[in-house]
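Morning F.,

Quick status update on the modeling queue. The single chain you submitted on Monday has been processed. Sequence for confirmation:
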Amino acid sequence: MSEERLGRYRVDGELGRGGMSVVYRGHDPVLDRPVAIKVLHPHLASRDDSRSRFTREAKAVARLKHPSIVEVYDYAPPDSDRAYIVTELIEGPTLRAFVETHPLKHSEVSALLMVPIFEALAHAHANGIVHRDVKPENIMLRRDGTPVLMDFGIASMVDTETLTATGTMLGSPAHMAPEVVEGEPLTTQADLFSAGTVLYWMVCGALPFSGPTPAALFRRILESRFDPVLKRRPQAGRAIARLIEQCMARNVADRPGSAVEVAQALRRLLSDAGLDTVRPQLTQLFKDPSVYQDELGRALVPRYVKAARVAFEAGLTGRAIDFLDRVLAIDDEHAEGRALLSRIERGQRRGAIGRIAAVVAAVLAVGLGGWWLWGGATPAPVEPRADRGLLSRAAPADAAPRTPNPAADAGVDAAPHDGALVSEPGDRGPPQDAADPDGGRPIARRRRPPRLPTSRPPSQPASVAMSAPAPPTPVQVPVKGGPYKATKVLVNRRPRGYIYEIERDGGLKLPPGRHTFRFENPACRPFETTIVVDQRSPRGPTVVFECTLKPAIIHITAGRDVEVRAPDGRVIGRTNQDFPVTMSQRFSELRLTLGDPGDRLPTLPVKLFAGQRIVKEVDF
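Structure tokens below.
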């Protein structure tokens, strides 16, 4: 039986198949190495426009170079009767198989596994490629434990018309972003949503969205109906729960700005747990998952207790509670953790009581002030009654007799007489000149606060008198971002969308007053500016985003530590360490020299992206 070949590659056997392709194990006789050959189903790549699209996208994916993106070696030539891609062969299991075989005990392990995936997405997004199908089955683990994102760009190699005509679904339903379900143009934010569902599945042990039919599943995605992370798994930890739910936000503007932001947030979470280096941890995890997770649990408790104490002493009680939440999730009976949590809770109760007391005092002060206002600016003199110890107001000896007031006697409100004691309808007290039963002077009636007139001026209608003042008219404020259209805009700490959306709408409508703008872009340092909106002006001041580029971070993994030099010969870092490179534009290319010029060590071309960490591997 003759062996099957695709181009120069020998086909050794099938590894798996899906809705878009069949994957074979193959061999490259020229380089004498095993390969994986992904062959698209004929009905997906039979048309000329589909084949040209396939070739164009395959070239784009082949340019991606990242440790956590499967490397593309080759692809079918235009005259081939079959459309295929040749990639490196990953010998390890898929993420789904690994997690189902070795359930994850700690959310920190989930973060370790997903940091490289979000960094891989960031690298692809910077090169203008959206994955479209992030799911556990498309993530594999190398023998050293490194997660690798597979099928990058495969979904985009076939046009949407072909997929629709054949009934093939673009992406996995359970991980689809709402905007994908609605048929809107795909953006990098769709990948963040899908990766967020993968992280949810790893932490909670179940998918966030499910349904008996695809229609029911899509309805739940569109309605954002899923159990919160801490409801599914209370011991997961508040910090990672917030991040997962932010990635899965229904509105694109409420999600993180980029995959870089998510990766950085996960690395901060891991740093709090004392896990600053990701790759060595993953290697240990892959060698023996059960032993690694047991040892990690014992190591995390003292680290989080120490971090909680530092946060509490710095006044960061919310952060301290987050750390103690992880402590008690791992060891519910941890005495030191419970004692510190009780101390924080007592402090919060005392603070709450103090705030309530302050509010009560303020209310009493306002009430007493109102009593004096209604009772008159100068209180009438009083004198003690010796017999009962009560206070009574004495009438002057030469007081004139009370003038009859027909209006008051008839129960009609009237203005009080200056210097006279006011009689109120329905008052059951003794008459004004009644004698003291004990034979003393007449008892003066206690003065009551006067009532305000209830009648309105004839010229003022009731509707005008009772209506609230009209709210101030919002003013249009133009916002400009130059080339940085994907910058997130926050006004007074509230997200208002992206610059490209705001420019399209002609700006933001804001009420008169002071407003603080904050601009966030993965390539730029956060920028803030404050403006004053004046209602008298028909248009507010133009707000312009000024981008100060972040440095690019380079990490070159090599067999030995040597100096890294820029093209002009300057030493800018060392291998096996992170080092920054100042950026004058968002993207640039740099050819680095490793070691001294006389060492004849290799030069390395590197594509740099402001604000991103680029990892390169060399073998020497």
